[in-house]
Amino acid sequence: MLFSILIANYNNSRYLETALSSVLDQSYINWEVILVDDYSTDDFEKVVNTYKSESRIKVFQNEKNQGCGYTKRRCAELASGEISGFLDPDDALHPEAIETMIAAHISKPNCSLIHSTHYVCDDSLTVKRVAEYPRPLPDNTPYLSVSDGRVHHFATYKTSAYSNTIGISATNKKAVDQDLYYKLEEEGEIHFIDKPLYYYRIHTGGISTTGKEAEATLCHYKIIEEACSRRIEKLKSERSPDSAYWIRLYRTKYHKTKIFHSFKSKSYLNFAYNLALFPFVGGMDNIISYLKKLPVEGYSLIRKSFFHDYKIKVD
Questions:
Q1: Are strands 83-86 and 3-9 parallel, antiparallel or unpaired?
Q2: Structural domain includes residue 251
Q3: Which residues, in sequence order, are CB contacts of 307 under 8 Å at separation 6+?
């Protein structure tokens, strides 16, 4: 079974050799690397030229800088493997990552997406801890309904499942992986492997250190809204016995996301409108739960809800 490692690169040549070396060191050897460069201005060609003799590493370049969504979509379209997974060019894989994922996909044919936990590392890729946020979903709970980042590296998917989706949005600049995960969830189950199979590097220039968390959060809100709308329309056409339940759940999630999206976008009239509408679209239970927490958590709850941007710390 062929595994496609997908690398979307832009100006990460100083780390790329480490990423590629981690693939070459895999215990499972039936793999290909689909490396798409997004018109880098650094030493990309100098680095990749050292791998010309390795036929499993296939290099492509965009004719101009297109952004993350476009480049990752192109990676996925160029893949030939039955299983695919993204490796960021500044990160690395555990030596048994591919072997573990292949075995998991074979044993779980109904899963479209299988992910693990990972090591959080410093700029030198020195391990600081095992990430605490990747974890399994509660029973009968769609990832879209929690959308809390628990699906993370190393995330792999069946290429046949991806081909049934509309694909990664080429226009998204941020939260591209989350867009992929929600779409894959619509084609099968999600399974979690509680073993770190990936080395996640925190460094200057990464999203968690450049102050771009707020921009990524806004993109994520938009992606959630689109996913909710997509699922609601599909449920309406299917008319299954439990469609009404799921439509209500996704409609509530949609409007809840609109509240936070409009607030963080500083569109305060839309914020007031969405907040006033929320109790009438299934949000009353959410409001009651929030009000119960407020006396206990106080301002920290408000800050977490409206002002906090998710950030991964090294220590």
A1: parallel
A2: yes
A3: none
